Amino acid sequence: MTTGVVVFTRDLRVHDHPALAAAIREHKSIVPLFVFDDAVARADFRPANRTAFMLESLADLDSSLQSRGATLIYRHGDWAEEVLALAEEVNASAIHLSEDVSGFSTRRITQLTERAKASEIRVQAHPGVMVISPGDVLPTGGDHFKVFTPYYRKWLALPWRTPIAAPKEILSVKRLDSLTIPKIEELSSGSLSPNRVNGGESIARRLFANWRESHLHEYESIHNDLPGNSTSHLAPYIHFGCLSPLELAASSLGRDGAEAWVRQLCWRDFYHQVLAARPDASWADFKHRGDHWIDDPAALQAWKEGRTGFPVVDAGMRQLLDEGFMHNRTRMIVASFLTKDLGIDWRHGARHFLEWLTDGDIANNNLNWQWTAGTGTDTNPNRIFNPTVQGQRFDPKGEYVRRYVKELASIPDGSLHTLGPLERAALGYPEPIVDHHEAIAEYRLRRA
Predict the structure, then answer these.
(1) Cys bridge to 188: 51, 112, 160, 288, which one at CB 3.0-4.6 A?
(2) pLDDT per residue over 33-52, tens digit each?
(3) Cβ contacts of residue 104 below 8 Å, gap of 6+?
(4) Residue 231 contacts by C-beta under 8 Å, 6 or more apart in sequence?
(5) DSSP string of 228-244?
(6) Are strands 27-37 and 122-126 parallel, antiparallel or unpaired?
């Protein structure tokens, strides 16, 4: 029996962790490792909310490992170089980690695999980031599905692996040098949302257990209800792997309301398999529509700050800044408004979301933006979300808007969606920055 290194990346948990389980099964002792990658540290885009959440999740993971006899080792530098250096230091025969689909992740794993060959160290990628790995769900004669519904049918029909219990004990190599976990200020200079959620598998498992018992049964009927705020709020925990998406799906199926919830997990897998096949689609149009985007910095800034004069749009944008989160229905509304009412390139919106969302995920975020902008996988690329109608339908009493748009807190009912100029002036709330109907007519001409 030998030593194995388990490299944690986007899988910060001990429950249902195939890479960790395989290492424990195959090796006499293991070394859990997390590397703070220089490539990430040097980037000009280091979102504070996600960084803080990751640090909290790492601390929680270390606590879970220590309770089982191991310690999470931290290193900082070139990711592949640091992983290989530790593997050589402990004379490891294998490096285990979870597979991922982004171009950045696959390049790192490929680079590590090539470097490890010279040291005769095996690099083994395991499932764990998705319910079903991209290569396991393929259409006839293609490398990925481009439309969700046929993907969903095949995804549901395939057998799933059985979730793996957390290990009770881990035999680990002792007395290794490790960095202390950095402070948020060392990794990000961005602003933190004052009401963001905290990270960690321990919190995540409690949240899921409580939500499953109290809200899963009504998910299909409530998931678009803006003021109810009864969606799972588990997205950041899924993004950082504090929760296994497979375990979530498997433990939900068969319960009332589970089908609609599991369908959302399938959407996540769908976008991951698109990105695995088309890594360029993270920032390039999946389907080029010949759009002529408008350069309007003032309108873009008003959108970012929640000062568009459309109450439900402004509520969503202010929720994002305040919580590092936005209701999924509102995400579609504000994305449609930016790309179709304002005519601004979806990439500006996607980047702003990634800057603030604690659950910011390159596959889900950017491909959802493309879906709304009409450059993605939507079979109806010219779909329009009327912001006033959406507010009236999903926030009929104005409760969601009043929660985030304080200027409108004194308006007692849904009339806040259709305020006139005098009322807006008295409340200090701006006039709409565009006329929706005129803007959509112009959008249709631009795309014609």
Answers:
(1) 51
(2) 999 999 887 776 789 999 99
(3) 39
(4) 215, 219, 222, 223, 327, 328
(5) T--S---HHHHHTTSS-
(6) unpaired
Name the CA radius of gyration of the chain, rounded.
23
CB-neighbour burial class of residue 41 (10 A; exposed 0-12, middle 13-18, buried 19+): middle
The letter for the amino acid at 276 is A
Domains and their CATH numbers in the chain: 2-128 (3.40.50.620), 130-161+200-277 (1.25.40.80), 297-447 (1.10.579.10)
pLDDT in tens, 157-177: 999 999 999 999 999 988 888
Complete DSSP assignment for 11-65:
---STT-HHHHHHHHHEEEEEEEEEEEHHHHTSS---HHHHHHHHHHHHHHHHHH
Read off the pLDDT of each residue in 277-296 and give the average, rounded to a whole number: 94
Distance between CA 247 and CA 163 in Å, rounded?
6
Distance CA 193, CA 324 (A): 6
Q: Please identify which residue in the block is written with the tokens 């009770």.
A: 168
Res 290: pLDDT: 85
CB 15 within 8 A of CB 166: yes
Query: In the numeric block, which tokens belong to residue 77?
Result: 């530098």
Contact yes or no for 84/115 (Cβ under 8 A): yes
Cα separation, 383 vs 174, in Å, equals: 58
Spatial distance between the Cα atoms of 364 and 361, rounded to a whole number of angstroms: 5
CB count in 10 Å sphere of residue 312:
32
Distance CA 63, CA 199 (A): 13
- Residue 133 three-state SS: coil
